[in-house]
Hints:
Blueprint: E1 32-35, E2 41-43, E3 49-51, H1 76-88, H2 90-101, E4 110-113, H3 122-134, E5 139-144, H4 147-151, E6 163-168, E7 184-188, H5 191-196, E8 200-201, E9 215-219, H6 224-230, H7 235-253
Parallel strand pairs: 1-4, 4-5, 5-6, 6-7, 7-9, 8-9
Antiparallel strand pairs: 2-3
Amino acid sequence: MTTKLTLRPAARARPKQLLRKGNSNLGRDKNVWVFTLPALYAVLPDGTTVVTCPQAGTCALVCYARFGTYTWSNVAPAHVANLLFVVEDLPGWEAAMRKELAAEKFKGAYVRIHDAGDFYQDAYLLAWLRIIRDFPETTFYAYTKEILRIRGCIDDPGLPANFITIFSFGGDQDALIDEDNDRIGDVFPTEEAVAEAGYASQLRSDLDAISGSRKVGMAAKQRPQALRRQGARTFREWQREQDRRRAQLAGRRG
């Protein structure tokens, strides 16, 4: 069972730093910075629940960002504080992000948008797109399950050249992913399974997700309960099973 992430009233001050070094995996890449939100959902101080991963599917059953270091007392409230800033004052958040990115250290750097959470609403995604266009010397990238939302924003003027999206399997919009043309990510039970499927592993560096092969594989986090749930399936295969079951149930009801 996961735990609701809440923010104590005393912790409601605006974050002093929005971009931070990421988890232990991201920490291997010294020039990668991260902005993140709570995974799946969070409860704000006024009792409002904000769903931060609207298209989460089977991934939600084993979400690594609801356990371990993400729940630590100095980590979880910081993620909720980020979300609260976005929810309460999106223009202020955008201004703060721009001010931070203007530092010299971000020229030539990489920013991973979310190692938890997603582009949960149009206004939030559009704010990111404005920021990204105005900082062309920084490369931004994101794993996302918001296929329709992303595609709805690329007609005019299109996604910035310095923004790389990886459509990750395990979400309710998997069927919309173009496996022949999109940059894609899947979660496998083991590193050996990643190699056998012909995917490039991002074990060595998270930046391998945005260079080289369009197909990027990740081994599942080694939590026994999560591994038992996933079994020998990839997230892509697991989601397809769930989608078929839903279709069968809908057919019976119809």
